């Protein structure tokens, strides 16, 4: 059973401890130079090339002038007529042949077409004019795209800036690409990370924190471990400090340091949490506005006009990926789009619409491989001990979406083709 949630409005009181004194992480096996050209000035010194006047050095007008030949010099000047007559006959014949070839003979189709138009004009019949190619392309139906930010008076939604905000977040995804950091973490494995994330889900539910806080905390853990080598004894300290940082970023009333000391069963001191907070922020250059899949998921569900139950199912699928190390290299927007597409297929609510393609930037064909992987994640549970996410979404508050049976492979392929 999970511990009872604390009341944030009441005064500080001791929180019920999470199961076990601290997270016990079992010993598991870790898996040509450019040549610059100088410009010469117009008044170059002697020996440099002079500035050439127009056509002065190109023509032979001033070089070796030919003297005018006169009759009395004994030289016979041939007239132009004689030169033409003395030209070889083969050249003239070739010129005639080339002229004949250059004259294009009208094809049979052109002649028949012209005859038909002349006959129709004589009879007074209407003449069909060929439609230009550009007009033919313009006649093709353009898919309708809904304006999801239209007529929204809610100031919290920021509909005037929503498109710019999400375009900016998609650009930032390229900055936060995750490497395979476990290759250099010799004391931490995939299973240890999964245990830590499972505990962080319990903390989020116990403190009644926003889902954005949980997603950002997991991102902070991964990005910190990607740049810093850590031991398994510090893993819970990293996780609790990541939740503290993300709470200050996302929550209106974040938990205090003493709350995190209590849930860790006093395994760490207050100075250690504050020191780890400074270490994480310094390692990440204080840039913690990392794009998370939960924000994209809510945006895409609005494009699909999905109800709360369908959105909750997509959230359940997306939250399952937090524990899986194999999904950290997927971009947040693509992961959110794939989770929503799988939820639409499971609820039999249609396929990927042009509106979704426009706002998400992904076509259905781009998401199919990832959708199939997510369906396998729903079907097969790797570790039965890590049940925090599945237990969370079996409550009636979340429409008991965790009890919904997954699709088999054939049914999923038929749903994706439709």
TrEMBL record:
Pfam families: Cyclin_C, Cyclin_N. Keywords: Cell cycle, Cell division, Cyclin. GO terms for biological process: cell division; mitotic cell cycle phase transition. PROSITE patterns: CYCLINS. Residues 28-37 have a biased composition (Basic and acidic residues). InterPro entries: Cyclin, Cyclin-like_dom, Cyclin-like_sf, Cyclin_A/B-like, Cyclin_C-dom, Cyclin_N, Cyclins_cyclin-box. One of its GO terms (molecular function) is cyclin-dependent protein serine/threonine kinase regulator activity. PANTHER family: CYCLINS. This is Cyclin B3.
